[in-house]
Amino acid sequence: TIYEAESVGLTLAAQLLSMEEDVTYPISIYVDNQVTIRSGDMFSTKPGHYLIDHFCRAIHDLKKASKDHNFKINIHWISGHDRVAGNEKVDQEAKRAVKSSEDSSATHRLPPYLCKGVLPSSISILKQAQCQKSSERWAR
After folding, report:
1. Torsion-angle region of 83 (φ positive above 0: left; ψ -120 to 50: alpha; else: beta)
2. Are 77 and 32 in contact (CB under 8 A)?
3. Radius of gyration over alpha carbons of the chain, in Å?
4. Do residues 60 and 13 lie in contact, with contact meaning Cβ atoms separated by under 8 Å?
5. Banded model confidence at residue 42, pLDDT cuts 50, 70, 90
6. CA distances from 130 to 5, 75, 121, 123, 124 (A)
7. pLDDT in tens, 44-67
8. Distance (Å, rounded) from C-alpha 75 to C-alpha 108?
9. How far apart are CA 107 and CA 101, in angstroms?
10. Cα–Cα distance, 85 to 42 (Å, whole number)
11. Which helix (H) or strand (E) holds 75?
12. Contacts of 133 (CB under 8 A, 6+ apart)
């Protein structure tokens, strides 16, 4: 889902920050999905929320490791349809990575939870797909 993709993107941003040696805070991360941004402030057991939990833990770990007294990471919404150059580039790279494993990140550079194979499927997406298949069968 888009929510899951944006949540993984946030975790990857945190991973990149953890690999940098000299980070100047505050940092701003822009996301074009408002649901993803809002979900970081709440506890939830909904499908896919574990991805935001990974991001929150990664930020917490960054804060513990940082010696910068100005440590602050801001998450901002950005319209996905305003032709913002950086946002367009990220979308292109994400689509390229989905199409070809050659364009994906090296496994050793990914957070451990992303190295365990495919992400668990969303129950709601599975139900929708099953419902659609059943409808198509009954329509014959």
Report:
1. left
2. yes
3. 17
4. no
5. low
6. 22, 36, 13, 11, 10
7. 556 567 788 888 889 999 999 888
8. 26
9. 11
10. 31
11. strand 73-77
12. none
For residue 128, give the H/E element and its range: helix 123-139
Q: Report the alpha-carbon distance of residue 23 to residue 136 in Å, rounded.
A: 54
C-alpha closest to that of 103 among 114, 111, 95 = 95
Coil, strand, or helix at residue 97?
A: helix
Strand partners, 95: none
Question: Rounded CA gap, 23 and 29, in Å?
Answer: 14
d(CA 27, CA 84) in angstroms, rounded, equals: 19
Among 54, 92, 93, 59, residue whose Cα is nearest residue 74: 59
State how far the Cα of 107 lies from the Cα of 81, in Å rounded to an integer: 31
Tokens (6 digits) for 40: 């970081």
Q: What's the mean pLDDT when you consider all of the chain?
A: 77
**Number of C-beta neighbours around residue 10 at 10 A:** 24
**63: helix, coil or strand?**
helix
DSSP 76: E
